[in-house]
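Sequence dictates fold. Next comes a concrete instance:
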Amino acid sequence: MKAGEPAAHDSACILVADDQPDVIEAIRLLLKGEGIRTLSASSPREVLEHVKQHRVDAALVDLNYARDTTSGREGLELLEELRAVDRALPVVVMTAWATIDTAVQAMQRGARDYIEKPWDNERLLTTLRTQLAVARAIRERADLARDEPGFHAPGADSPAMRPILALARRIAASDATVLISGEHGTGKEVLARRIHAASRRAEKPFVAINAGGYSEHLVESELFGHVRGAFTDARSDRAGAFEAAHGGTLFLDEIGNMPLQQQAKLLRVLQTGELYRVGSSKVVMVDVRMLAATNADLGKEVAAGAFRADLLYRLNTVELRLPALRARPEDIPALADHFLAKWSKRMERTLAFSEDANARLLEYAWPGNVRELEHVVERAAVLAPSDIIDASLLGLDGNATPTPLPDAITLEQAERYLIDRALERASGNVNEAARELGLSRSALYRRLQRFAPPRS
């Protein structure tokens, strides 16, 4: 897609790349019925020419180009070339011989999702609708951030934040392991993504995983992968987060909640770059930069025997401690205005806070920190009956928590809202969004298909 151009669904253009004319024609007719224009390409060279010369909102690319149909090498190399031409272009890959390893390789080279042949029409349409919607949201966010180079960010000019960002800027170019600490909602993952974006690994994957969000059995599989038959539900080989992040950055959130046994295995990977998938004796080598985050005092956890001292020493080569929002009230107005500008643009409205709303924002203690502020502003923008948001619409009462959504919001609307937010945070990566929502990939697609408008 070209910067600044709209990508409304009814004028979207999708590039379909396959060396089989009947496949291209079938998909062209399917998308025509959805009001989506198509360009076609039968070779990698044609794909790159189209992306360079035309506005393309998304690409559907087959990995099985004729010269190397056993490994998908040529198709995988094309993904890297596409990323070099247009990093923001959503690419969905198709393959008739999909394996988990192939999917991981495709994701590492910039693909947002994959479709297996023979495809299901509704699944294909849902996938492309999702990528078009996410691409539009990402473009809007990029437009807002266009004047915020490097580590400069709205709401980060307070005396409490300036030295933290200065240190983050200095260590970004290195491969130093970084421990980011702070209360829930202070922006630990946001800072981790900024460090990755400013590093030499910026063009490689950034993989985020909640290290404390899984049972002791599952966290090992999530991190290191498993082989078929390793346990009851292991029906196929699966690469873990380390392999998915190869060459890039792995962000482990809530590291303090990781089980002790897995801490030992994590330490070994950090020291040697070697891992074993669950159920396998084969060594897998990985090159990953580690960024970790916690809201706990890991020193106290070590003293209590709940965290390994050697792992803590390995993790906190550099520690960045993010302050709570209440400790930097100077940043609240800029943050609130930034979030409101984002939603004004998305909703095509000109929204503004009233004087009493601005005062209420400064009075509130923000126990949920920046994340809570963003959610409060988002909710107010969605529910605002006029372009002026007054204090009552914020749902804040002194130090109380925000009032719940009104009865007029249906369960389906709330579910769609949460799914949209997860997809945007995951930059369209359906696997990552599903993991955040606690769903399987297929379960998320079933919900997306239910939300899709009926075809005429």
In short: The two ends are 27 Å apart (CA to CA). The longest strand covers residues 289-294. Confidence is low (pLDDT under 50) at residues 1-10, 66-72, 144-150, 398-407.
